[in-house]
Amino acid sequence: MKSVFVASGSFLPPKVVTNDDLSKIVDSSDEWIFPRTGIKQRHIVEDETTADLATIACERALEKAGWTADSVDLIILATSTPDMDFPATAAVVQKQLGASKAISFDMQAVCSGFVYALSTADLYLKAGKAKRALVIGAERMSSLLDWTDRGTCVLFGDGAGAFALEAKETTEEEGLIDSILYTDGTQADILCAGSKEHPKTFMNGREVFRHAVAKMEEVSREVLDKNGYTADDITYLIPHQANDRIIQHIGKSMGLPADKVISSVRNHANTSAASIPLAFDEMAQAGKIKKGDLIVFTALGAGITWGASLLRI
């Protein structure tokens, strides 16, 4: 049994905040932000909830897959910004979709959340515990920001992306091949939010950068090597969309040409767990994802957590 990719969907809230817009509320400018991050704009919620973002992304994935919501039996929502302490935001998404048969729960691994959720869905599908899954990354990162701190508020945005995966008996080389995940709680203090000391997002940028470029490259190479591939074999590397400098550094370290290293951070900034499916769906909508493509997803987030998944379309 394999976990086969069927379709993707995404949603960005309509409100766009450019770097020039931010310069009116924080001591920053496009000339300061863009060279350091590669970010030009971000989408910010107004009335939308995390469940709303996730639901629309799922509806678009379902439409492309040709599935009805009641045919889905697993929903995993990766998010750091649930709408309530409880119940899980995934339960609200289940209700809004009408996916009444779906086991639904949230997963919290911050920016690594989508890779963690993919790995978890893969286990359910391969074990025969589910047949059809929606794996979602959805975030309202704007709710966790101090809009006077230019070191963090310029980096993040809101949005959602979703994958439709199906359990399938097949001899074709397709589906999720493998995932490798790590956590190092000794580094929990370099990136955090919601504590007494740091109620809003705090980041030690230097340390996060150092860990991100090293660990995302290492785990990407590890998942390839473990499964008999090299960097030359992959069609695309889609890293967590945190910062264009990090993305390009990883690609160069792996010896990949620029057209194989996907960066969409320019238009939606860092959307945490939503960033990988957003980047992927942007490629899919542009017709750049083809049957047989071999793709590595890799991410690092607070925890610190990191990992990589290898997918054959």
Give the CA-based shape.
globular
Low-confidence stretches: none
- What characterizes the major β-sheet? 5 strands, mixed
Find the CATH topology of the largest domain: Peroxisomal Thiolase, Chain A, domain 1
CATH superfamily of the largest domain: Thiolase/Chalcone synthase
Q: Please state the average pLDDT score.
A: 97
Question: How many distinct folded domains?
Answer: 2
Structural classification: alpha/beta
Would you mind describing this structure in some detail?
By secondary structure, this protein is an alpha/beta fold. It has helices at 19-22, 30-37, 50-65, 89-97, 113-126, 150-153, 205-226, 244-253, 265-268, 275-285; strands at 2-11, 16-18, 41-43, 74-78, 103-107, 132-140, 158-168, 175-183, 191-192, 202-203, 236-239, 294-301, 305-312. A five-stranded mixed β-sheet has the order 1-7-6-4-5, with helices on both faces. A four-stranded mixed β-sheet has the order 8-13-12-11, with helices on both faces. The radius of gyration is 18 Å and the shape is globular. It starts with a strand and ends with a strand. The model has no long low-confidence stretch (mean pLDDT 97).
